[in-house]
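To close the section, here is one more complete example, presented without commentary so you can practise reading it yourself. The ligand is (~{Z})-2-methylbut-2-enedioic acid.
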Amino acid sequence: MRDKIKNLKQQLDAVILAHNYQSAEILDIADYVGDSFYLSQVAKNLNNKTIVFAGVYFMAESAKILSPEKDILLPVIDAACPLADMVDVQALLEYKQKYSDYTFVCYINTNAEIKALCDVTVTSSNAEKVISKLNSDKIVFLPDKNLGEYIKNKFPEKDFIIWNGFCPTHERIRANSILTLKEKIKDLVILAHPECNKEVRNIADFLGSTKDIIEYASKTNFKNYLIATEDGVMHTLKNNNPDKNFFVPGLPAICMNMKKTRLDDIYFSLLHKKHLINVDENIADKARTSLEKMLELAR
Ligand code: CIZ
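Output:
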């Protein structure tokens, strides 16, 4: 299957982008692996005509918005993001009316219709930087309440209204499971994603995006790390740091949507050019403004 994918890729001049949460078999064949911020920049700058996006829907959609001239393929069309689906247009329009003098900041985990109604998009690796450059002290942040609270604490002078959404995979990670493990392994260094709930964030030694977590573990010299984020990052962490130990609290935190993509999905995606992502032009134009503002401010 790997060879077949390689041949088809060459024939079609295609590249494979994979999000850090994909399964090991996908991460191993991808041309680029990273978080949504990195991958959206890669997608925009590549010269290849065809991009296979191994991730969830909003990621492929963001790539299409930023690169409308390219064919963006999402191998599994129902790879969704429950967090992104926690905001609907009607509810957002009501907020926009109620908080008409606020700047609307949306996490990249949103659908295009939502980005189109927001002033700027952020990811967990650039939210602080982007918000620090906004000329506004009144922010509505959506949809992740955990990332929202984490960012709000960085800007005590700003007024934040935070949406009540959450990532079910991160929300399930329990502080108790972390503390139980820490009892057994005294020098455990806890690295957590800001999408985790407050109890987990409060006991973390380091909070950051997948990119930040991977960098932190590689640059520091501890022996034992506990990883509180989606399980996909463990593959990269272990590969990059064979001499270090990585633990998870309780059962691995697995995003079922991210794990839907298998090698044969990538193969059939290339073979049949499926599923081609299309975004309504009017929505794409507005969402692009929000995404490009992120790229500009995060520089
Ligand atoms: O920014 C991303 O890609 C997400 C959703 C999480 C992360 O930290 O990589």
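Once you have examined the tokens, check your reading against these statements. The mean pLDDT is 97. The first helix runs from residue 2 to 12.
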